[in-house]
Specification:
By secondary structure, this protein is α+β, with helices and mostly antiparallel strands. About 45% of the residues lie in helices and about 20% in strands. The longest helix has 26 residues.
């Protein structure tokens, strides 16, 4: 394409070339009739070899020109000059988002403004049935005040036949392309949300998440590799912001945000939680444990209070799906367990839960996997910390705190049940499985700073005047693990045998810890 400087296209006089890419060149021009500068994007002659191109071009641009939004670049006119199609748009003097990023990572607040403005533009376009198809920093223009405008709607589809990435026309730029486009060219608003996530990552790091020597190599990384950690590049970006990027760039479209606006809202909340986290997190954490199936095996008193459940309800919660107890979707619960089973540990993942009154609570959850001797997933410990001040002063649950006499009864009963479970594991698989149960109990104790140690099935308790949760939690871990290897019937029978030979007075005192009843729903 020759330089068109000095030439006239209708009422537009070309001043100079301001940008050039593989498929088009952009010129600044003067529209004399209204005395304003405009930008004219001129496409190459080669596109006209397709006899249907001009008709498709005119149809697409008419749709684009109808998008009237404060953050979508206005299209004023379009036509053809010497066999070259062109589009006339508003001229922006502030350059592109690519120019901004080229100077290094952006300030978090500045990046959030860009995401918010672009999300609003995308949501508007999507509501009109228009998908951008090629969202990237080069298509985000800025005015002299730093406001952003999204350009080039529909051009990826107009020129798709000339883009031979894998032998067929591909929509978009590989660096920002959602995995489903490489698989089957499925086109939904999710492809724009994915590209917005990639762009946000680039704004924060100064680089794109996936790079390879070929376009196909980049597409493969998008389809298979996890989103790199932003925190490895800069330490002022906290975990909730990383989660926003990861969800926006989820491999499966259904796992992404339902809209770009929802992503922008989540980002604003994540940034707010970053600034509030140190001063508003509750001093203590709520703890909930599950087995491999996601059934609750333990919930502590702090968690009961957070969920507005009374102490007596703890027994009724055991065996229920974690998703029901926390009020989260089955999809989110399944994803949480799937992720921790692979990673082993998840740090401060943002989660919205509901209490029994239906109130929504935002919490940061740290999830740790429990694994068997072969590394198989057998359960998870979920620690919940509210991101806002939720002292729940409007709700009281009665703590079961043990005095010295109760403590001794609990110790005797707990030690007896643990030893039976350890024996069952050893009978099936030898001391290797018994040693793994020792490890599970010790790791759980250390993680929660409980002064309980176990070796060869013998438990040593060094704490006094503690609460009943410690014994319930560790017994729950043992039950869940041994059930996974010897089955429910054998565990139920072993627990009942302990109850039968325990002193009736002790059994009465530890009634709420009575394992055969407390874990009944897990053993049916």
């Amino acid at each position: 394409m020759n330089n068109l400087a000095g030439k006239t296209l209708g009422q537009y006089t070309i001043i100079d070339e301001i940008a050039k890419g593989g498929m088009a060149a952009v010129f600044r021009a003067r529209q004399k009739s209204v005395g304003r500068d405009v930008a004219i994007k001129v496409l190459p002659h080669s596109l006209m070899h397709d006899g249907t191109f001009l008709e498709r071009f005119n149809r697409e641009v008419e749709v684009i020109a109808g998008l009237q939004h404060p953050h979508i670049l206005p299209v004023y006119d379009f036509g053809e000059f010497e066999g070259m199609p062109y589009i006339v748009m508003a001229y922006m003097s502030g350059g592109t988002l690519s120019d901004i990023i080229s100077h290094g990572p952006m300030n978090l607040n500045e990046a959030e403004v860009v995401v918010r403005q672009m999300a609003d533009a995308l949501d508007y376009a999507h509501s009109k049935g228009v998908i951008h198809r090629d969202f990237k920093p080069g298509n985000v223009l800025l005015d002299e005040r730093g406001n952003t405008y999204l350009a080039d709607f529909g051009l990826a589809r107009i020129t798709a036949h000339d883009s031979q990435i894998t032998g067929t026309g591909m929509l978009g730029t590989p660096t920002y392309m959602a995995p489903e486009l490489a698989r089957d060219n499925v086109l939904t608003p999710g492809v724009d949300i994915y590209a917005l996530g990639v762009t946000f990552y680039q704004m924060l790091t100064g680089r794109v998440p996936f790079e390879a020597n070929t376009p196909l190599g980049v597409l493969l990384l998008h389809a298979t590799d996890p989103v790199p950690s932003i925190q490895e590049v800069r330490d002022d970006v906290h975990t909730p912001v990383q989660w926003v990027v990861e969800r926006a760039m989820a491999k499966v479209p259904e796992d992404r945000y339902a809209s770009a606006g929802e992503m922008a809202k989540a980002l604003a909340q994540a940034l707010k939680s970053d600034t509030q986290e140190v001063r508003t997190l509750a001093p203590t954490s709520a703890l909930l444990m599950t087995n491999m199936l996601g059934q609750v095996i333990f919930v502590d008193q702090t968690c009961l209070k957070l969920l507005k459940r009374h102490y007596a309800e703890a027994r009724n919660i055991i065996g229920k799906p974690m998703t029901d107890v926390l009020g989260i979707s089955a999809k989110d619960g399944e994803q949480l367990l799937k992720d921790v089973s692979k990673a082993g540990r998840l740090e401060k993942r943002l989660l919205e839960i509901k209490d029994t009154k239906g109130a929504v609570l935002q919490v940061l959850c740290t999830v740790v996997a429990t694994k068997d001797d072969k590394g198989g997933f057998v359960g998870a410990d979920i620690t919940l910390r509210p991101v806002a001040d939720t002292a729940r002063s409007d709700f009281i649950t009665v703590d079961k705190h043990l005095d010295t006499q109760d403590e001794s009864f609990y110790q005797v009963y707990f030690q007896s049940q643990i030893k039976v479970l350890w024996d069952l594991a050893v009978q099936l698989g030898g001391k290797k499985l018994g040693a793994n149960l020792d490890r599970i109990i010790n790791e759980t104790s250390e993680r929660n700073v409980w002064a309980i140690k176990m070796q060869d099935g013998q438990v040593k308790v060094e704490q006094r005047s503690t609460d009943a949760d410690v014994y319930r939690a560790l017994l729950a871990k043992a039950v869940a693990y041994v059930v996974s290897i010897v089955g429910k019937k054998a565990v139920a029978k072993g627990m009942q045998s302990v109850d039968q030979r325990t002193d009736p007075h002790i059994l009465e005192q530890v009634g709420e810890l009575r394992a055969s009843q407390l874990f009944k729903d897990l053993l049916i």
